[in-house]
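FIELD: query
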Amino acid sequence: MLIPVILAGGSGTRLWPLSRARYPKQFLSLTEEKTMLQATIARLADMDTDAPITLCNEANRFLVAEQLLEYGQLGQIILEPVSRNTAPAIALAAMAAQAEHNDPLLLVLAADHDIQDPQAFQQVLTAAIPAASSGKLVTFGIVPTCPHTGYGYIQQGKPLDEGYSVSQFVEKPDQATAQDYLNTGGYLWNSGMFMFRASRYLEELAQHRPAIYEVCQAAFQNSREDLDFIRIQDEIFSQCPDESIDYAVMEHTTDTVVFPLDAGWSDIGSWSSLWDIHPKDKNGNAVIGDALLHESQNSLVYSQHRLIATIGLDNMVVVDTKDAILIARKDKVQDVKTVVEQLKTRGRAEFEYHREVYRPWGNYDSIDHGGRYQVKHITVKPGAKLSLQMHHHRAEHWVVVSGTAKVTIGDQEILLTENQSSYIPLGVVHALENPGKIPLELIEIQSGPYLGEDDIIRFEDRYGRS
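FIELD: result
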């Protein structure tokens, strides 16, 4: 049995403003209609795999569940209370797998990688199964296409019956060293993908990093189920050392095997990476969305909502979202992370949220706001319900645009349809539900001295947020 372990807790800051802390790149559709998380599962469709184990953070749990359900592959979802890197995350997945199955094979994948040749990818995975089944810890090294300085490298050793031995793992090199690796041959990019038996990984972790193993074991034993999620015990897991699987295990074990992978792999770690893999016009421009380019070349233009017109651009990146625009030289896009850090330091909402915010019941788009008012376009999924709540500082008006709304205001319950409205005074307990078969859309007008999202007192909530 082969169980995919999907690591979906990354922040994807280098793809800001499209990727945000509360909606990072693994939940976006960047190269196809499916999101990157869904594509990670989809490229295993022709293999004999069990339901996945997905690890994510608390904030993105409903996004993960919704996207996996859309693809019919919910599986187990483990919530990490804090980020402690890949070694502890994979340990939790291995323990969860052992609790449900008889020592299965685990296939560890990041949720934000792109594979252009899924068939070649599956062939290499299939070839690695015998080695992993026999107790080896398999890693997959990407055949390099350029002297990349953003990846660690794996030096191939001698050929084995299956795969190659590993001579060494090496850190991200400088440009000259990366070029030397490419010229010499036998060096592979470290992809961060692995295959091994759950027991073998835990054995090696216990041997080389017993502190990580013991904390993870205690935290998992004290976990609890909550709806579709496994909640790991917060106080215990917070004490876990922060280490990658490479540092904790792979660089120390004598049972590592590497399989070269040449399948059009990319981690889409920057806007220039997206330009690399995206189809281009005759001038080398990659265009996503509505754009008009004049005398422009070798550039990436990404528009979500409006026309972008460019004149005389060369090697540039232009990204437009509802609330932010990024303009950068293509060779400087790695510095986006510096911009993100500044946004975080200044407490700007653009660090964490898009203007459009997703909730387990649907989403809302903040259309306009002023000193004492805010206007939102709210969409509620069929059968979904917002929490029973009240606000200390704001009143609300709801105007139904389409669908049917079941509204609770104090002890009163009413049904509203298109062009009907209701008023919720400050301090009154209320709820909103969509009892219909189509999405409910309404306009919410908030008024009051404070309009922050933390002015919500929840009394009941079907999504466990009260």
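FIELD: remark
The longest helix spans residues 118-133.
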